[in-house]
Amino acid sequence: MYKLFNNKTFIKKALNIGLSYEIAKIIAHWKAEGFMKEAFLFNIEETKKAYNNNKPTVWCSTFVPSELIYSIGGVPFMPEVAAGFVSKIGMAAETLHKAESDWFNNDLCSIHRCGTGLMLEGYMPEPDYIIASSHLCDGAKRYLQHISQEYEVPFYLLETSYYNNEIKYLIKQIKELIDDNCDVKTVIRNSDEYIYQHDTKVYGIKIFCINNKEEI
Question: For residue 79, what are the domain limits?
Answer without folding.
Answer: 55-160
